[in-house]
């Protein structure tokens, strides 16, 4: 099981500014379209350590820096992660009892570990995509009805 680490405070103004500057540089590096990039880091003693990173990892790092640069906190969750019901409820921004109802109705697959329910992160994402698509379709239908009735929308 993967434990989720949730930062309790957003980045400071200095951290956000540093993240914005770093993301601009990294974005320029990614424009080269190379399959990997070598990055040099200096430790506290000034020694240089080189790391070669694949382009997908650099794109992920760019996304993280962009979010931090906007003052947002970031949490990384592997797609294969198993979540507790509270973690899944937090991701969907619903109460835990409501999530339990969804699980018991079969809306989201789950399994038990002892007495506890576990939900796969990718199943939570799939559910969220389904309900978001249904909401979008309902809004489109309402907008079409409003236009057909000449309601000024």
TrEMBL record:
InterPro entries: DNA-bd_dom_put_sf, HTH_17, SinI_DNA-bd. This is Excise: DNA binding domain, excisionase family. It comes from Tepidimonas sediminis. GO terms for molecular function: DNA binding. NCBIfam families: excise (TIGR01764). Residues 83-130 form the Helix-turn-helix domain.
């Amino acid at each position: 099981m993967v434990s989720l680490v949730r930062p309790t405070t957003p980045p400071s103004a200095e951290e956000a500014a540093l993240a914005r500057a770093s993301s601009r540089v990294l974005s320029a590096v990614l424009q080269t379209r190379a399959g990997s990039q070598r990055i040099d880091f200096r430790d506290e003693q000034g020694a240089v350590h080189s790391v070669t990173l694949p382009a997908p990892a650099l794109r992920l790092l760019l996304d993280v820096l962009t979010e931090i640069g906007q003052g947002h906190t970031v949490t990384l969750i592997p797609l294969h992660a198993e979540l507790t019901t509270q973690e899944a409820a937090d991701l969907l921004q619903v109460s835990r009892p409501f999530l339990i109802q969804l699980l018991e109705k079969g809306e989201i697959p789950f399994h038990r570990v002892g007495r506890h329910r576990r939900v796969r992160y990718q199943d939570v994402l799939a559910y969220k995509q389904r309900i978001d698509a249904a909401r979008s379709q309902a809004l489109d239908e309402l907008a079409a009805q409003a236009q057909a009735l000449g309601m000024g929308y």
